[in-house]
Known about the structure:
Strand content: 5-15%
Number of helices: 6
Mean pLDDT: 80
Distance between the termini: 70 Å
Helix content: 40-55%
Largest sheet: 3 strands, antiparallel
Shape: globular
Strand order of the largest sheet: 1-2-3
Amino acid sequence: MRAKRRIPCREFALLVAFSLAAAGVLAGQRAAPNKEQTDDAAGFKEFTGRVDEYLKLHKTIENQLPALKNKEELPEMIAAHQQALARKIRESRLHAKPGDIFTGASREAFRHVIRSVFKDPQNATAHEHIRQRDTFKGVRLQVNGIYPDDIAETHFPPTLLQKLPTLPEELAYRILGRDLVLVDRRASLVVDLLHEALPKI
Length: 201
């Protein structure tokens, strides 16, 4: 019976190194982003930069207002603070319009991600949003307008939220009909709108 040939340590080490290098090359080939992914990443970076600019404005204005001592303040005091914040932000953004935050490049990035989540019309997320659209049919929003309290907590698909750029705690994504809405939570203000971001279902 022939004995198995033993591979010298040096040859074995070279073999392992070669295998790892080859695996790394293949992994790199698989991970290489295509043009759409590269463009989307650039679009999201631009969006994040615009969000940072808005956040600076928000904090500057909020710091000029009398601070609320705690969350147990009287409801009317909280409402007054919210209204004052919204009014001053609106005055500082008199010419705000759709696309100021959701820029051209980022609009395409958002639409690509949203389509990837909603591509299956049979999934539970799609059905949830069909019901939501019916509930708030006829509601019209505009940039710098107030986001109504009664739709402030509409359902947002967690699978979609995980794929979108992370927002600071002052802001939130909302969906109304087919529109993606960027909302200032503390001012209940519509910061920007991305019309018809969601596909028809």
